[in-house]
Amino acid sequence: MNEENNKTLGDLFAEKYHGSKEATTPTPGIPVDTTKKDILSGLLSEVNNDFIEIVLPSKNVFYEEDTKVMIKPFTYEEEKMLLSSSKIGGKNIINNMMGKCVKGVSILDLTLPDKIYLLFKLREISYGTDYNVLLNCLHCEEPNEMIIPINELTVNYIDEKACTVKQLFLPGSKRNVEVTVPRSRDEDLITKPSKLMDNLWRFVNRVEDIEDKDIIRAFVKKLPAQDVSKLRNSILNEEWGLETKISFHCMHCEEKNDMDLPLTADFFSASSEN
Predict the structure, then answer these.
(1) Residue 17 clears pLDDT 60, i.e. is over it
(2) Cα distances (angstroms) measured from residue 28 to each of 31, 32, 39, 233
């Protein structure tokens, strides 16, 4: 019997639209029965997107007991989120990116030193250790090209005896107060000095034995300057976290500069050696 007559309707349909089975040539190096999923897995075999456990500067004392924080590198999805954002480095886009690459703790629950540490750590494992940044001299305002090795920045870990709240004595009013540590969700309340002043009372849990927020708010607004300064410094300054202050001598005027390491658009780009 003619071989052509033995072909099924499916065979004829396949030949018409996809060519003859006999004419099909396997792709070199790929088995005929390999699926697209298998091929993709092979192509990505050297890509490491596994979560790794890290120790936060706070040693997780501000979170649930037995919290384990895991992170993984940014991928295509996070890169697209960043490039699609109208505001590079905006708080919401940063939180969304981090939320996809951090497990074990909510981004909004993070203390601000922990969040900054995580952001730098994610940058390090995603784009490389070297951060290329252009810094303008504080004296002559000329630009200085700098390469900051992120993995060499100092990390200060919290004292083992630290509490999740601070007990302060205000010398002006001679009152004891309990102050809470700001979290990521509170960033909008403290980003500018004026905002912090308006919201200072929100971080005071107790004045002596009084916990009434209306009374606390009125109390804070009547405080002398030295008490306000102590409250503000307690809220903004932590002794633990990643040290992001850097020092350098200007290549133009040779004056010494001390400044906080800025997060520019280059923060989310690959190191030059990668």
Answers:
(1) no
(2) 8, 10, 12, 66
